[in-house]
Design a protein that fits this description.
By secondary structure, this protein is α/β, with parallel strands linked by helices. It is built from twelve helices and ten strands. Strands 4-3-2-1-5-6-7-10-8-9 form a ten-stranded mixed sheet, with helices on both faces.
């Protein structure tokens, strides 16, 4: 089976959906070969430590390079408690503090195009493009950016989306770069993904070591949101926006796609602009949202996903 070479760009250690997205990506190693994780936004080194702790003991620590992006500051991340006392020097895998340079080197050395999945503010990606603009010609870009017709709460209308608003100039750079291809899930589709009921129970009650780590991180995030107070065991997930970007790296199944000409405004809104916008293959609505939730649950709970047969489109 053909494996796409993948780089994951993430602000993991912020909202919890990055954790769910990473586990989903690891479970699809039969067709998505994760080669690097580039962490970004504020304390990129702490976010890299989170990735190390997740990968440790999974076997992926031997094959996946972890790189820290631009280190803006050392502020506490939402999962600071989970990595407290963790010693990065004892990680058995590869870590590069100069993650932007490491990503450029990986892309330039690749004999084939690389799929870059971005599920966080694009600060370090914009820096990579400044240093080596030619890498765009070797990259299929998949992102989770913006809001066109739907808000976080499901209401109608555009809204400021975090990955765009956090670094507007960097996101505008992403939207004006000539990638080999550009696929994106805005809030219109990804903000509808929540697992509850049997889907959530299958994950929460699993004894799978990777899912136990996921549930630990989920609990840590909820406690952080509650101001450090213990919270009851959840019965559902929060929004799992980033999982849709992982899915789009290999499939359009369950989704209605449209080529839209999009532009990021100075204020940070993602708008249609048929004159100066960039054509983006956009996941604008669902054809089978329940089907995707089932697929996501099956993917997360499959210990040996390489042997699992799943139709790809």
């Amino acid at each position: 089976m053909y494996q796409k070479r993948v780089i994951l760009h993430t602000d993991i250690g912020g909202d919890i959906d990055d954790f769910w997205a990473l586990v989903m990506l690891l479970r699809q190693s039969a067709w998505l070969k994760l080669e690097m994780i580039l962490t970004d936004t504020w304390n990129a080194v702490a976010r890299a430590a989170v990735c190390e702790k997740i990968l440790a003991g999974t076997g992926f620590e031997q094959t996946v390079l972890i790189g820290a992006g631009i280190q803006d500051d050392d502020r506490e991340i939402t999962h600071g408690e989970w990595i407290r006392g963790y010693d990065m020097s004892r990680y058995p895998g590869r870590f590069r503090k100069d993650g932007v340079v490491a990503m450029i080197e990986l892309i330039e050395a690749s004999p084939e195009p690389v799929t870059l999945i971005s599920i966080g503010p694009a600060t370090s990606l914009a820096e990579a493009l400044r240093i080596a603009p030619g890498i765009a010609g070797k990259v299929h870009f998949v992102g989770m950016f913006g809001s066109i017709n739907r808000r976080y709460d499901g209401g109608t209308g555009a809204e400021f989306e975090f990955n765009v608003k956090q670094d507007i100039p960097a996101c505008r750079k992403i939207f004006t770069t000539p990638w080999l291809s550009f696929v994106n899930t805005p809030l219109d589709t990804c903000a509808a993904v929540v697992l509850e009921g049997e889907f959530f129970r299958r994950i929460a009650e699993s004894d799978d070591p990777l899912l136990r780590k996921l549930m630990e991180c989920n609990a840590c995030f909820l406690k952080y949101q509650a101001g450090g107070k213990d919270v009851p065991a959840p019965r559902r997930t929060t929004l799992l926006c980033d999982t849709v970007a992982i899915h789009l790296a290999s499939s359009r199944r369950f989704l209605h796609m449209e080529i839209l000409k999009l532009r990021v405004t100075d204020q940070g809104l993602t708008v249609r602009d048929d004159i100066s916008g960039t054509p983006v293959d956009t996941a604008l609505s669902w054809t089978d949202l329940e089907g995707f939730k089932r697929f996501l649950t099956d993917t997360l709970t499959a210990r040996n996903s390489d042997s699992r047969t799943q139709e790809r489109e």
